[in-house]
Write a structure and sequence with these properties.
Layout (H helix, E strand, L loop, with lengths): L2 H32 L3 H27 L10 H17 L5 H29 L3 H30 L4
Helix pairs in contact: 1-2, 1-3, 1-4, 2-5, 3-4, 4-5
Amino acid sequence: MSETNLEALFIRNLKDMFFVEREILKALPTMARAAESEELRHAFEAHRGETEDQVRRLERIFEIMGQKPEAVSCDGILGILKEGQAMLEELKGSSALEAALIANAQAVEHYEIARYGALSAWARQLDLTEVADLIEESLEEEADTDDILSEMAEAAIGSDEV
């Protein structure tokens, strides 16, 4: 792939992630309100702050790239969020709600990890060191959140909360 095509792919996926992060910002308050445990509610609230930082990082990356921050609709994240909303409605009041919220949040995290991982690699290939560093900050936050959610899932199973 030529550098020009890779750069176009990079920018297209950057726009995708800008959309993704903004959609997640809209979904996190609903997820926090639905959480039954204080720990999960706090995790969603903390991740909202991280997500706001990630949006600012993406805006900075657009600036570095000489691009206007622009979002391109992402069917992938919309599907994951729609599925989460359906589970929330279906399991409201159920002992499985907390597990469903964690599973859906992890699906979101895994999507972001995959996208940020690719963007980081492409930024390095394009010799965009500052951009790659900014992306890797977000990638690390997403991986940390995924680890926290995994620990919560294991703790919930071990305590019969699910």
